[in-house]
Amino acid sequence: MKPPFLFLLALQGGLLLVGGGGMLWLGLPLARDAGGAGFWAFALLLALQGLEALFRRLFPASFREAEALHRELALALKRSGASPPFLLALAFAAALGEEVFFRGFLQSLLMAWLGGLGLWVQALLFALLHPAPLRAWAYPLYTALAGLLFGLAYLYTGSLVPGVLAHFLHNAKGFYGLWREA
Question: 27 lies in a domain?
Answer without folding.
Answer: no
